[in-house]
Amino acid sequence: MSALLSGTGLVRNYGATPALRGIDLEVAAGEIVAVTGPSGCGKSTLLHCLAGILRVDGGTVTYRDQDIGLWSEAARSRLRRTEFGVLFQFGQLVPELTAVENVALPLLLAGTGRREARQTALDWLGRLGVAESAEQRPGTMSGGQQQRCATARALVTEPRVLFADEPTGALDVLTGEQVLGQIVRVAREQGTAVVLVTHESSVAAYADREVALRDGVVDPTGLGLAR
Amino acid sequence: MTASTLARLAVAGNRTDMLRTVLTAVSALLATIAMLCAATVLSITGWAGRYAAALLVEPGLRPGVAATLVLVSLPVLALAGQCIRLGAPARDRRLAAIRLAGATPGEAVLIATAETAVASLLGSVAGLVAYLVARAAIGDQRTLPTDVLPPAPVIVLLVVLVPVLAAAVGALLMRRVIVTPLGVVRRVRKRGPRPWPGLLIAAGLALFALPFQEHLKIHIPAPRNAALAVLGGGVLLTMAGVVLGVGWISHTAGRLLRRYGRGPATLLAGQRLITDPWNGSRTMAALLAAVTAGSVALAYRALLATNFRYYDLDNQVMGYSNGEGTGPAADPSFYFNAIRLVMVAVGLSAAVAAAGLLIALVESVVARRRAYASLTAAGVPRRTLSAAILWQTLTPLVPALVLALAAGDALVRLTQTDFDLGHSYRECVSENDPEAHCRTLAELHLPSVLHVPVPWGDLGLLGAGALLAALVAVGAGVLVLRSSTDLEELRVG
Q1: CB A2: neighbour CB atoms within 10 A?
Q2: How many helical (H) and strand (E) elements, i.e. helices and strands, does chain A have?
């Protein structure tokens, strides 16, 4: 399989502290890759760099043969609302908007008509089993409902890559498994590649492949969470 | 992004956002009314004996009335600027979430600016309606110029100008803010402020003094408006210097507090002043501008009083009485009433400025509520935090007020500081041969020079009033501290 997204020699520092120290990673279309490792090993930083949220200090991030590190902030933002979807542990929903408005947001930002965006958002909320929460605001929804809503928002543009950073980290085990199962099911249906950051082996087990990090580099033992 | 999406995202918000929108609209309403009133006064043409108020009758005095009304609108606009920062943390989180959904940095700034522009436009349109309704309701053309309406293009310009200005201020405040999908970053200047604004004050004083320096042979050409522009420019430069100088004053005060202060309150206040020395410039700008204007008015009153005293003495020597004689001493109350009007405007401006200070304080406390809650959880008494806020506000404010008072007084003292009475008075009985038939009426034995006094008492009262207004604002702002230091704040994500 040829790589849809790849990072080559990725270096990222926070001041004098190195977070990534030359990481290589490739993700193929439709592939689910789990990035694992202990806290502070650079998992989230790697995800942010691959998603174009953070710029790398060294190396290149290539998406469909284009170095997105050379793109402007605005161009990378547009990439995130068309080709990429981003899912965090919490906090990504706009608290003042209803669930359906939150899901429709990327479409509205892209210029889709309000009615069409709303209908598409309602469809996605239905696919993820939270249609009944469409008019609720995030503050009145449970953690599981919020995360399903966030998943719907991340997938509503039918992205080619979904970046998920500890997507079930704030949920109880049962709800977490349900949400993760839905993410994986929908991603498989769509043919969406998933970069899944986690420190839980049960979550990593949903992936096709596991890449373990340690101190900002790929763990040479390759054992990851199975160690 | 379509206009409807922009509007929806701009008005999305919680109760604090709603309060910010309402306050912004009210500020725009008040500013629009003040500026429409100023435009109305300027629209009166020629000698207007139909009005009861002499300030509206004389063409030479109407620009001063209009300038006073504009002076009132400035702190109101500054209040609108302060409102933009209210509830900033929640808005920052919202903007970050919208960025994560794919909004570009420009779109995030556009959403934040659109909210201000929409609220201001609503306020300025409401201001126009209120102005027109009030004109119709008052109807009395003797007291107020309800028979005059500014030209339609001017009205439209003013209604549009307020939201444009407010949006520009909003965009200006966002220039150091980077909204990322992971949150909001505020760029911090690495170097502390320098005392360069002192040069602005010096330049302002020099510009103001230019028309009065006869020995320099500098003549401000006609029309008279050119001289007024030079004087106004001098005052504005001086005000700008005072306001910008607060950055350096705050930084220096913070360093002194941290070095010599005893106790945690001064330490906290000192560090905050060093970290964000420009906060004072933003929050105290309107108050300091009002105090500078008030100081100019009070110093001018002292100058006028001395001038009248000079004419009184002159007329006494010449044998005039009962209002006869030279100079405007016959009816000084007219001039003093005009200055009283300016002082009323200054008082109103100071009150509005204090409201702005209160909003800034509340915003500052709410923005740092987690830090305050953490300190409370660690055992720091709320009294200490309140004291820190008091120190943080007053330490730069007191020297800044002294600077504003001194700068305002200095402006007027540059025009004239004394009146020379040291000459004899003679009466000539023959126009054809004045030297032969003149006789000395009197030799004046009073002090030969009348000095214009510094109005220490009045300036002190003005400074104390401004300080009191600031204290009331701090007191009200500290009330928010109790709810903001609730330990529940530590659990909010």
Answers
A1: 8
A2: 7, 10
- Cβ-Cβ contacts under 8 Å, A82 against chain B: 102
Structural contact between residues A186 and A154, judged by C-beta atoms closer than 8 angstroms: no
Site from A53, A71, A77, A153 to mutate, B interface, most B CB atoms within 10 angstroms: A77
- CA-based nearest distance A15→chain B, Å: 15
The C-alpha atoms of residue B54 and residue B62 are separated, in whole angstroms, by 9
Chain B nearest-CA distance from A25, in A, is 23
- CB contacts of A114 in chain B (<8 Å) are 2, 4-5
Q: For chain A, give the mean pLDDT.
A: 86
Mean pLDDT value of segment B405-430: 75
Domain ranges of chain A: 3-219
- Calculate mean pLDDT across residues B71-82: 73
Instruction: Compute the nearest-CA separation of A112 from chain B (Å).
Output: 8
Q: What's the half-sphere exposure (Cβ side, CA atoms, 13 Å) at B300?
A: 16
Distances (CA, A) of B46 to A39, A154, B23, B428: 79, 68, 39, 39
Reported ipTM: the value is 0.78
CA proximity to A197, closest of A91, A87, A103:
A87
pLDDT at residue B222 greater than cutoff 50: no
Q: Across B206-288, where does the E strand assignment appear?
A: none
Q: Nearest 5°: phi and psi at A5?
A: -130, 135
Helices (H), A92-194: 99-109, 114-127, 143-155, 173-190
**Residue among B292, B329, B288, B289 at smallest CA distance from B309:** B329
Task: State chain B's mean pLDDT as an integer.
Answer: 80
Which tokens in the block code for residue B93?
Answer: 């989180």
Under the banding of pLDDT at 50, 70 and 90, the label for residue B461 is very high
How crowded is residue A70: how many other Cβ atoms within 10 Å of its Cβ?
9
Q: How many CB pairs under 8 A join A and B?
A: 80
State which fold the A3-219 domain adopts: Rossmann fold (3.40.50)
> Under an 8 A CB cutoff, do A95 and B94 touch?
yes
- Rounded to two decimals, what is the model's pTM? 0.69
pLDDT > 60? residue B94? yes
Contacts of A58 (CB under 8 A, 6+ apart): A9, A10, A11, A12, A22
Residue closest to A192 by CA, chosen among A67, A68, A52, A32: A32
pLDDT of the residue at B299: 93
